[in-house]
Design a protein that fits this description.
The complex is a heterotrimer of chains A (about 475), B (about 260) and C (about 450). By secondary structure, chain B is α+β, with helices and mostly antiparallel strands. Chain B is about 20% helix and about 40% strand. Chain B contains three helices and 13 strands, in the order H-E-E-E-H-E-E-E-E-H-E-E-E-E-E-E. Chain B is elongated and about 90 Å long. Chain C contains 18 helices and one strand. Chain C is mostly helical. The chains are: A mainly beta (about 475), B alpha+beta (about 260), C mainly alpha (about 450).
């Protein structure tokens, strides 16, 4: 006879059967709630342990730059680094480079975080220490960047400033690099300006002739709301971080207020006739009448690379004006830039072989007043020979066959024409593509033209080369 | 009986309910609402994941080569401070590239790929943290389908380069202008080609920015140094220097 | 110490989450959305504290909501996978045991999460990088598998004619395809077009559909079902083998983690896939794995947001809480893990207490009346958050959900169908379809 047993699971009689015919339970398979209690205790212990880790790891946990690999693409990380370049600012973003013991990385900050950092005066500069949280991007070409999302994700410690000199920075640079990525204050004189597409590099020079570059990113004007106004030969005190570019030190300016003008030095007033080699490397102020301007083209494009200016006559030192500096001139100054204008300018004397030159460096100090100048007409081309090389002449004649253009692969040709005077003598007219492509009209055989230009050598003969498009006038 | 009601009634409700929604979508719009138009400054977190239209002017447009996505900043037409970031994901971005390629091939005037200066009406899902004009607020709009992007490219005003570079303040931000000049220089950046154009007679020069994404529109740059071109583009600036942002190949005509 | 206050926040969250978990039809994301509104309205509230409340709520919900499913029949999609055994146990007087077994499954999943936490920051970024480029085809593969792997149901009697038998064989499968299609069509509408007022969109985009798919049909079927809940046996011993519990827990964890990591895949789908791939069988494994999958799906998905180096936003809670707080540091991650552990233990205790209470009182009430009461609550909640338009959507979704239940096809078809438009978008073909449908 079967025993009457009750199923412990459902509470119904099982009639002794196993498993229970009602609910299917086999009482041998059972777990007590104690097992769950044990699990809970273990969970609480682990939870307490993790809570302790939370307390122990409070604050950012930066990673090393060298540990960044493709697996970390899109990962969010903390990094703690020194700012080594920048800031490069735009209208909607800001970037700077940072470095730790293992490498460098670019940090990008976009709107609205960017604007908040500006408002809070927390834009990192060279020498500062930053602790940053953001999303890593590791691209297929190996480049990496970290994008900062919110202002709270950037913790900034401003660098302390060290007083030093240009000489000290330069003398230690190639040995101890004592000042690399430090924030320094130096005094120097502004002696040149190199405009780049996104920045300007000012040259600071001390009394011993040591120079140091001052890098001013054009985007600072967005941060500052104005342009930087410093002049040639001003002695300034600059506070900036020392970064590195191309192996040489460079000051990275972060704030226009970090430049203070101490003194305005004056150039030596010299007349063009009295220039000699004792003036080499010195800044001079000269004046004269512009008699000729020659556009020198960039070999890879039709852009002008520099302009050579003849003042008063062909014998005085040429003034060399880099096109980047020319583009910094105000519009009304550039409009006056031509033959006949009376110019007063400041430049630095240099020597090329035995020839003296005046380099019109930036920030440009140049004033022009309108005027006229017409060289005398040379009617007989036979009198123009290679002995007149580098002279200024004015000729008038008819274009006859015989010219030979010089073709270029990717650029328009340079043009050679043959001009014939009334005596039947010929002279070559050499028009570079830089000038020709800027002319409002083209030239052809049969055209009568009047040309002002310099005498130069083409092959074995003399030729006349105009300097600017307005030097060529089609008479008929 | 009740079970049968649930069974067949449920099926009927499901089928006719779905049909009703689609009829409603095309006619009465009782349940399925018209997609509302919202000003950028009026977006709130409660509108997250809704479907809305916004209209604004594109102030920044970039195609990201590494993931084939499109990112844009759009500002409210009446309020420059109200700005939203718009994102289109890769599959739809590739579609609008193909659409632009096709419309250029067909010489159709309606642009399919946006550029700075365009007036865009966009349908998408907002993602709002804070509000559009609040400090710390961030707003984004996700475009789900290319059909949600309508582009009006304003006609360009003919100007001289001289006038444009001397008096950029006379023109509106990202206003479309048309200039003529000779290409004298060309250089590549990481995401664009920059052409320098010289204006005969005035000696004024300006830069044209051709985003690299244009090479995906089925053409390459045919103009070379020395060519005279007529170009339309949105007036932007590069560190204070005016430049024109070219939208597509029909903005650039080689004259000789 | 400030950090101890965060534990207090979590404790409050556990209490709120547990209390709300036994309100049928109320989804944790709806409550969290209200919390976000609160945080935005009162910015002085510590964002991390707010998110600790959410964490406590989420953990509690993941565990305690098994009670509503077991005793009240109102569920969300993540419970459907394991529901049938829970209901069986209830009718056998073992409802209490079923709910505790579910709790143990969740507890087990929590333990696995605790154990892998220290290595998660090294392992998960690798998984993410490997999986991301393949997301579209993985998702479409999941859909294809779920649709194709359904088997004909036994209707209890064999039809006498060949046509009849053919009909029986294809009834469930056809219904599965139909509900997939219908929910996909609903998804195209609700995910692309406004079906409420604009200022309700945050709440109303998905809640009515989900309520209609899952909660309302189940409540309706309970209401018409003629059964009386028998007296429940409350026991400190659970009649299940350790092997079943361990196997169920690990299977559920794997399925839950898959669904946590993959967008648009719900816990139920993850549990189904894991169950199939590991040959899960038997009621115990079903219930335990379902609960483990559910816990891992909800809490694991939120966990991914906190993992250092990862910070992956998946599923509702991560999206919602990101609006007020974004975790950044290792320290915050360890706090989160500690809170999960402590909250889970608290929730388990509350589960036991509440289950005992419900086991005692449920048999005293008419199941029909309880179900109708639950239905009224669901309707009220949807009306409040989504408006009358939301009720229409809910009704239509209810039709789809009832079709699934009454034709005995898989609920997973509904979930996958509803989100299939997003998968089509990822594959680049969604736009053609919305144009044909006239949505764009």
């Amino acid at each position: 006879m079967t025993e009457e047993k009750i199923c412990p699971a459902c509470g119904k009689p099982t009639a002794g059967y196993t498993p229970c015919p009602h609910c299917g339970v086999d009482p041998k398979n059972r777990i007590g709630l104690k097992a769950a209690a044990v699990v809970c205790v273990i969970a609480l212990v682990l939870g307490a342990g993790y809570f302790a880790m939370h307390l122990a790891t409070a604050g950012p946990q930066p990673i090393l730059i060298s540990s960044i690999d493709r697996w970390l693409d899109y990962a969010y990380v903390w990094v703690a680094w020194t700012v080594v370049s920048g800031p490069s600012a735009g209208t909607t973003s800001l970037s700077f480079d940072v470095q730790d013991s293992s490498g460098q990385l670019r940090i990008e900050v976009y709107d609205p975080t960017y604007k908040t950092l500006i408002a809070e005066n927390r834009v990192p500069t060279v020498g500062d220490s930053v602790t940053v949280f953001g999303q890593l991007r590791v691209y297929l070409d190996g480049s990496e960047e970290l994008r900062v999302s919110t202002p709270e994700d950037l913790l900034l410690t401003k660098a302390q400033t060290v007083q030093t000199t240009i000489q000290e920075i330069m003398s230690t640079w190639y040995s101890t690099k004592e000042f690399e990525y430090k924030r320094v204050t130096v005094v120097g004189k502004i002696t040149n300006l190199i405009p780049l597409s996104s920045a300007k590099i000012y040259i600071l020079e001390d009394n011993s002739g040591n120079t140091l570059e001052l890098y001013v990113h054009n985007g600072l004007m967005y941060l500052e709301g104005r342009y930087l106004d410093i002049k040639l030969l001003q002695v300034v005190s600059v506070t900036a971080g020392v970064s590195e570019y191309g192996g040489t030190p460079q000051l990275a300016l972060a704030d226009y207020d970090d430049i203070k003008v101490i003194e305005n030095q004056l150039p030596t007033q010299v007349s063009l006739d009295n220039m000699d080699t004792t003036l080499v490397d010195r800044f001079v102020k000269v004046s004269g009448k512009v008699v000729f301007v020659e556009m020198v083209g960039d070999p890879s494009s039709l852009a002008v690379s520099e302009r050579q200016i003849w003042l008063d006559d062909q014998y005085t030192p040429r003034v060399i004006l880099d096109e980047g500096i020319y583009e910094l001139l105000p519009d009304n100054t550039r409009q006056l830039f031509g033959r006949g204008s009376n110019a007063e300018l400041v430049g630095r004397v240099s020597r090329s072989g035995t020839t003296l030159r005046i380099n019109l460096v930036g920030p440009p100090e140049l004033s022009l007043q309108s005027g006229t100048y017409e060289p005398s007409l040379v009617e007989n081309f036979a009198t123009i020979t290679l002995g007149n090389e580098d002279s200024l002449v004015k000729v008038e004649g008819r274009i006859v066959p015989g010219g030979a253009d010089v073709a270029h692969v990717t650029l328009p040709s340079d043009h050679e024409f043959v001009l014939q005077d009334n005596f039947g003598d010929n002279i070559k007219l050499w028009v570079t593509n830089t000038v020709y492509e800027r002319m409002l009209y083209s030239l052809a055989v049969g055209d009568n033209v009047r040309v002002v230009g310099k005498v130069m050598q083409r092959g074995s003969a003399a030729a006349v080369q105009p300097g600017v498009p307005s030097d060529i006038e089609k008479v008929s | 009986m009740a079970v049968r009601v649930l069974k067949w009634g449920g099926l009927a409700i499901a089928i006719f309910g779905i049909l009703f929604l689609y009829v409603d979508l095309h006619t009465t719009r009782i349940i399925v609402k018209e997609t509302p138009t919202v000003k950028i400054s009026e977006l709130t977190p409660m509108m997250n994941y809704a479907n809305v239209y916004i209209t604004g002017k594109a102030t920044f447009v970039k195609f990201y080569d590494y993931d084939n996505t499109l990112g844009m900043y759009i500002c409210d037409l009446d309020n420059d401070n109200a700005e939203i970031y718009v994102k289109m994901y890769d599959t739809e971005t590739k579609r609008i590239i193909e659409m632009e390629k096709q419309r250029l091939a067909e010489n159709s005037p309606d642009p399919k790929f946006p550029a700075a200066g365009d007036i865009l009406t966009i349908r998408g899902q907002p993602v709002v943290r804070g509000g559009a004009t609040e400090e710390g607020g961030f707003t984004m709009l996700r475009i789900q389908y290319a059909e949600g992007l309508q582009i009006v490219r304003p006609s360009a005003t003919r100007v001289t380069i001289k006038n444009m570079v001397s008096n950029p303040e006379n023109f509106g931000s990202y206003q479309r202008l048309e200039i003529e000049g000779k290409i004298i220089d060309s250089r590549e950046t990481s995401w664009s080609t920059i052409l320098t154009v010289y204006e005969m007679g005035t000696e004024a020069e300006t830069s044209l920015l051709l985003p690299s994404v244009m090479t995906k529109f089925g053409r390459t740059l045919q103009a070379k140094i020395g060519d005279t071109v007529r170009v339309s583009g949105a007036l932007s600036e590069y560190f204070g220097a005016p430049q024109l942002y070219v939208a597509s190949w029909d903005d650039l005509e080689v004259l000789g | 110490m400030e950090s101890l206050f965060y534990l207090l926040f979590a404790f409050v969250g556990v209490l709120i989450g547990s209390a709300l978990s036994i309100v049928p039809g109320l989804h944790i994301y709806s409550i969290s959305a209200i919390g976000v509104l609160f945080a935005i309205t009162f910015p002085s509230v510590d964002p991390l504290g707010m998110v600790m409340v959410f964490t406590g709520m989420l953990v509690a919900y993941s565990m305690v909501s098994a009670l509503t499913a077991t005793y009240l029949g109102a569920t969300d999609d993540s419970l459907r996978y394991s529901l049938f055994p829970n209901q069986k146990y209830l009718m056998a007087g073992r409802g209490y045991e079923a709910s505790i077994l579910s709790g143990i499954g969740a507890l087990g999943a929590m333990m696995i999460l605790l154990i892998i936490a220290p290595i998660s920051m090294y392992v998960f970024p690798v998984f993410r990088k490997l999986a991301t480029p393949h997301m579209p085809w993985i998702l479409i593969g999941v859909v294809a598998y779920v649709l194709q792997s359904e088997w004909p149901k036994d209707w209890g009697s064999r039809a006498k004619t060949r046509i009849g038998r053919l009909k029986d064989g294809w009834a469930s499968l056809s219904a599965g395809w139909l509900v997939f299609f219908l929910s996909m069509m609903l998804g195209f509408i609700t995910l692309n077009v406004l079906t409420s007022s604009l200022d309700r969109a945050f709440q109303a985009t998905i809640m009515p559909a989900f309520s209609g798919f899952v909660a309302v049909p189940w409540v309706l079927t309970n209401a018409v079902a003629r059964f009386k809940v028998p007296t429940q046996n409350i026991t400190n011993t659970l009649y299940a083998s350790k092997k079943d519990v361990i196997r169920g827990t690990t299977t559920g964890f794997v399925g839950g983690m898959f669904s946590a990591n993959e967008p648009m895949v719900s816990a139920g789908v993850g549990g189904l896939l894991a169950g199939h791939s590991t040959g899960t069988g038997g009621d115990t494994q079903f219930m335990v794995s379902g609960a483990a999958a559910r816990f891992t799906y909800y809490v694991g998905a939120f966990f991914l947001l906190w993992v250092p180096l990862l910070h992956l936003t998946r599923k509702g809670m991560a999206n919602i809480s990101n609006l007020v707080f974004s975790p950044k540091s290792d320290s915050e991650f360890w706090l989160f893990v500690a809170v999960v552990a402590i909250s889970a233990v608290l929730s388990f205790v509350l589960l036991i207490v509440l289950s005992r209470y419900m086991a005692k009182i449920i048999p005293r009430y008419s199941y029909r009346k309880v179900s109708l009461g639950v239905l009224a609550i669901i309707v009220a909640i949807n009306l409040y958050f989504a408006g009358w338009e939301g009720l229409v959507i809910m009704t239509i979704a209810t039709g789809i959900g009832l079709t699934q239940v009454m034709f005995r096809t898989r609920w997973a078809n509904i979930m996958l169908g509803f989100f299939f438009p997003i998968m089509l978008n990822m594959a680049g073909i969604g736009s053609s379809i919305v144009k044909v449908l006239g949505i764009y």
